[in-house]
Specification:
The chain has ten helices and no strands. By secondary structure, the protein is mainly alpha-helical. Helix 2 runs parallel beside helix 4, helix 4 packs antiparallel against helix 5 and helix 4 runs parallel beside helix 6 (127-143). The radius of gyration is 21 Å and the shape is elongated. The N and C termini lie far apart (48 Å).
Length: 220
């Protein structure tokens, strides 16, 4: 059901109760509005994350965390859990974990959120959120020096992304795989991975990813 459908049902439930004296549809209408609120909270949190990420890519820029971001994700999680929406719960958990890892640089705090997100997304076959959780678990493993585990997690994420056609995301994962290869003294493999990633990102207009690839090439 779309947001417009839920809003229309709420309007109809109001009229039915006020003018028709039948309040039986109010509870369902409220649950529909809770779903709208959850989706909106998650979307607003993602917008704030995108602003943070854009700021972190500016040369010399030191972006500040927007204090509204975490409460938005936590509100979405609370609503999705109350609604029994496992898919939404998995996505909200991922974003909370991502915030702790990417914004606050706290892999330890991020880990349980990412792990639970991964399990729930796999349970409902939400390959997008599943791939995101695997990617960030791989980032955490890489940061902890567990290179083999990190490589496996990123490869699993890439496989899911290929299945749903999220090819710019595959290119993004390949940057991590290149850094892992370089850390394993496989520099030639690392550069070959980056060349493939560059072609993939360029083909799909993923200009931000292209910039990250070129930066990686300068560092490897």
């Amino acid at each position: 059901m779309t947001t417009d459908d839920r809003l229309e049902r709420a309007r109809e439930a109001y009229q039915q109760a006020v003018f028709g004296g039948d309040s039986s549809a109010l509870a369902a209408a409220e649950r529909g509005l809770d779903a709208v609120d959850a989706d909106a909270a998650l979307a607003r949190g993602r917008i704030l994350h995108a602003r943070f990420q854009s700021g972190s890519s500016d040369p010399g820029g030191v972006p500040a965390e927007d204090p509204a971001q975490l409460p938005l994700f936590e509100r979405a999680l609370e609503l999705y859990q109350a609604l029994g929406d496992t898919r939404g719960e998995a996505e909200a958990l991922f974003w909370i974990g991502c915030l702790h890892q990417f914004v606050r640089r706290d892999d330890e705090r991020a880990l349980p959120y990412l792990q639970r997100s991964c399990r729930l997304a796999a349970q409902v076959d939400d390959k997008l959120t599943w791939s995101e959780a695997l990617r960030h678990l791989g980032i955490g493993a890489h940061a902890a020096g567990r290179l083999g585990e990190a490589r496996e997690l990123l490869e699993q994420s890439s496989q899911l992304r290929r299945e749903i056609g999220a090819l710019p995301g595959v290119a993004s994962n390949m940057i991590g795989l290149a850094y892992i290869a370089a850390a394993q003294d496989r520099r030639a493999d690392a550069l070959a991975i980056l060349d493939e990633a560059h072609a993939l990102a360029s083909t799909h207009g993923a200009n931000a990813i292209v910039g990250h690839i070129e930066q990686a090439k300068s560092r490897i």
